[in-house]
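Lecture 7 notes: from sequence to structure.
We start with the chain below.
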Amino acid sequence: MNDVDEEREKRKDEEASDRAASSLSNFSEEQRALLASIVDHSEYAVITIDMNCVITSWNHGAARIYSYTEAEAVGNPLSMLLPHDAVDTLPGIMERLVRGERTDHYESYHRSKDGNTIQVSVNISPMKDRNDRAIGASLIARDITVEAAARRRTEEAVITERKRFVDVLDMIPAYLVLLTPDHRVSFANRYFREHFGEDEGRRCFEYLFHLDRPCENCETFEAMRSGRPHQWEWAGPDGNIYDIFDFPFVETDGSKLVLEVGIAITQRKAAEEALKKAVAYNRSLIEASLDPLLTFGPDGKITDVNLATEKVTGCSRKELIGTDFSSFFTDPGAARAGYEKVFREGTVHDYALEIRRRDDHITPVLYNASVYRDDGGTVIGAFAAARDVTAQKKVEAELAVQRRRVLDRLSELEMFQRLTVGRELKMVELKKEIAELRSANAELRKKVE
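Predicted structure tokens for the same chain:
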């Protein structure tokens, strides 16, 4: 039963008590009989007692609730309905009634004839004679045993549910707190208490930061002012950085509060900062590379480039990103075949292409590329590095010229050698012929002689 229902029942009991305690002097006999019938057949117990707390009347409602008949009840002390520890309260009640005071609606425990305990809602009002003197009291009791049991079960269920809810909040690895408009803590979970201590009635800025006025950088009450959720970051006195979520909150009594949830992000911020530095460092290495570096997607569209790529193409990074990879080469078909091979085979090595700069300057390069994947292993792009081989091509051309020169000289030497060797062979033959002639001449001389 809520407060509204209790107040309604209280007014009903008081009205019934007033009717029972009213003087009957102004009513006709017929009216008195009608009123007596109404009282007698009321579902509530309507009991009257004299100044000695002896029962003087007893209606059907009283008989139903307490199991005593009218004959058994009338003439007996009211104390027979009360538990032993409540009997001593009767003199005080009677003294207030003599002074004309009404006993406010209250709940109590009475006893029935069979000894069972009954929970009742009670109103006691004074009864006076024509001279306004107290002559007794009327008591109206309503049996609320079943109702009270249900209410207790509901209250116990609410308490149990609330405890479970608080236990859940205490398990959250974040703080949750309710703040009043005057900066006091209405509720705080375990995380908040363990990290910031107990408030002990102090305002948040007093026990968190030992200040005598609200923090200048506090944004907590922005949610209350705007009526909308508000998110911000806060450096707590425990050394942590918190991601704060504030929400307007209305208490059951209608009072406005702020529900604040704070999630520690110190480690995340440190990781983000480390990642930021790592990314900046890696980017600086990429930008420091003298070789053109770029990434492109499976569709052949460029997704990122370094400064060397901008220089070799004569196009800015903004112009390059989103354009087709193959469009910056003298042979777009060969370039397209190259990036298709990367996604088909996973890598390419020393793939020869020529980059055409915006001013038609040609730069010969050898491309090496490989695919990269997301966390799930899906290929999402390729990374390519182009090595400028202009100097190598120049050296190769010079070597080719030198080689041709060497070959030409070698050819000349071989021809000279052939001529020289031929002459030497002829001299040998000539000498041989001379020797043969001399020998023949000598033989002739001998024959002549």
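Points to note: The longest strand covers residues 117-128. The longest helix spans residues 390-448.
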